[in-house]
Amino acid sequence: MKITVKQFALSLYEAIDGKTSSQAKVVIEKFVELLAEKNQLAKANKIIEEFIKLWNNKHGIVQAEVASANELNEETVKLLKNYIAKLYNAKQVIISEKIDKKLLGGVIIKYEDKVVDGSLKARLVELKNKMIK
User: Fold this and answer.
1) Entry pTM
2) What average pLDDT does this structure show over 101-105?
3) Residue 72 sits in the same domain as residue 118
4) Statement: residue 44 has pLDDT above 80
5) Is residue 108 a contact partner of residue 118, using CB atoms and an 8 Å limit?
6) Are 95 and 77 in contact (CB under 8 A)?
7) Are 120 and 103 in contact (CB under 8 A)?
8) Both 17 and 65 in a single domain?
9) Does residue 98 register a pLDDT over 90?
10) Are strands 61-68 and 92-99 parallel, antiparallel or unpaired?
11) Residue range of the domain that includes 76
């Protein structure tokens, strides 16, 4: 039976959940040995990505990418974190900022497969569509 990346990630999560950092380190070392034995080391990056998603989901953490035309100030980042926390019912929000010079203004928030387009262009298109109707 072929084990999927998600199954590996879930197994790792369940094996280290509730463990101390030193205990988790031992489990991770054994896990890597198991991957090597099963010739699955090539899947390590994907397993880590899935593990992080699972960990974040279980602990109420949202990692979002926010694209804007210019660097965001502290107050704006704080407001965005609060908005995202409410939107996704998160306990903690981690934002990675991306400068996109193609944007005229506003922000685009990406989280997993979800996108919240708060860009100026999106607002202008929305306004145009309302005016046409």
Assistant:
1) 0.72
2) 92
3) yes
4) yes
5) yes
6) yes
7) yes
8) no
9) yes
10) parallel
11) 61-132
pLDDT over 80 (residue 68): yes
pLDDT tens, residue by residue, 13-32: 999 999 999 999 999 999 99
Q: Quick one: pLDDT at residue 133?
A: 80
Following DSSP, what letter does each residue of the chain receive, concatenated? -PPPHHHHHHHHHHHHTT--HHHHHHHHHHHHHHHHHTT-GGGHHHHHHHHHHHHHHHTTEEEEEEEESSPPPHHHHHHHHHHHHHHHT-SEEEEEEEE-TT--SEEEEEETTEEEEEEHHHHHHHHHHHHH-
List, edge to edge, every strand of the sheet that includes 61-68.
92-99, 61-68, 106-111, 114-119
pLDDT of residue 113: 86
d(CA 89, CA 71): 26
Domain count, the chain: 2
